[in-house]
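Appendix B. Raw example, untouched.
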Amino acid sequence: MPIQLTPEQEQRIQAIVNAGAYPSPQAALDAAVVAVELAAASGFEGSQRDLEDLLLEGVASGELSEEEFWESVDRDTNEMLASYKTVPRA
C-alpha cells in the first residue's frame, strides 16, 4: 500500500534520522508503526500526547542499540499500562 508523506512529515522523519536515532527513514517509519500498534493495543489508555512524550524522551535520551531501545519501549509501556490499571475508575 503506497503512502504519500507530507513535506512536514518527511522533514520530521529526516530530523530524527539526522539526530542519529535511526539509521534510515525506513527504520524510523518502522518504529513509528510499532509505536502506533502499541498505542492501539488493547488496554492502552494513554493519550496521543503520552505517546509523543515517550517518543521524544527516547530520541533525546541519546544513542541506544536497537535492542536497548526496544527493551526501554517495552519497559516504559508496561509501566504505563500498570499505572493506568491501578488508577481507580469513577
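End of appendix B.
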